[in-house]
Amino acid sequence: MKFCSNCGAPVARRVPPGDSLPRFVCDQCGDIHYQNPKLVVGTVPEWDGRLLLCRRAIEPRYGYWTLPAGFMENDETAAQAALRETLEETGARVEVAAPFSMLSVPHVNQVHLFYRARLLDLEFRSGVESLEVALFEEGQVPWREIAFRTVGLTLRHWFADRKSGAFGFHAGDVAAR
Amino acid sequence: MKFCSNCGAPVARRVPPGDSLPRFVCDQCGDIHYQNPKLVVGTVPEWDGRLLLCRRAIEPRYGYWTLPAGFMENDETAAQAALRETLEETGARVEVAAPFSMLSVPHVNQVHLFYRARLLDLEFRSGVESLEVALFEEGQVPWREIAFRTVGLTLRHWFADRKSGAFGFHAGDVAAR
């Protein structure tokens, strides 16, 4: 059972008038409680051809490697979210450049967005959500221990684009297995 | 006052342990109610150099012209959301191409994302949220009656890119006035 965040009464799941999808609707105060996908925003931080990855100290995928990223918050832009998450998870100060990949993950109701970024110095360290943080050349990336498919795809696009000499913008989807 | 959607108890706004931002926290069941930006997704639908715009039959900005767009829903990809919103608001069947613009609008906690798209036929008509739907050449666009700044920016980028001969991807922010 779910409750109305506006008045505390129980809510029922049904299609509101004029809508086409079922929503949590409050019969007491009339509030409709929409549920929408969340943006997960991060960076691909580079230093001299190497990329900064962090090993997760939290679930899901504890112990696996990922790019710094997290849920975008209210009152910030996507680029500000990318900068903040990078600082929180790796301690690294970066210059955020262009968006690089945007991948819908509909089975978890998320869209993952990664920006290219340049490390400003080597003063990175593990944050509370990271076991360790390290720079990797392409041949050193722990490909079998990458936390999320969107991260693996983004890393492969990055190394392929570097090889081709031009960084693009990569949009797509990741389906449930 | 706000209530917990999980148990119906009143919630207080405070910083949870290990967090850095205030959240609605339920002292009864422990649920933390995060609030995150929403994705508004749409298309720039083209037919033979003209773009399809719709005049809004709903608030906000009733009577103003916009590109077809709306809130992305759970269980869909961003490209699917763009296709669905275009069909709902204009009746138009489109082929969705590459993402074209992505603009953060932090003062309303939204990110607006537009895809380039090609109309498959001329069978468009007003949906329940549109007063009218019409194709516009660049010189005919009602620039002073555009509903949202993200739509105006996206249209200007589109016409500029067409002139330059290459369509790019345009990311940025729209600040509160």
Characterization of the model:
2 copies of one chain form a homodimer. Chain A is α+β, with helices and mostly antiparallel strands and 177 residues long. Helix content of chain A is 16%, strand content 38%. Chain A is built from 2 helices and 12 strands; from the N terminus they run E-E-E-E-E-E-E-E-H-E-E-E-H-E. In chain A, strands 5, 6, 7, 8, 9, 10, 11 and 12 form an 8-stranded mixed sheet that branches. A 4-stranded antiparallel sheet of chain A has the order 1-2-3-4, with no helix packed on it. The longest helix of chain A is centred in the C-terminal third of the chain and has 16 residues. The radius of gyration of chain A is 19 Å and the shape is elongated. The two termini of chain A are 29 Å apart. The relative contact order of chain A is 0.19. At the A-B interface, strand 1, helix 1 and strand 9 of A face strand 1, helix 1 and strand 9 of B.
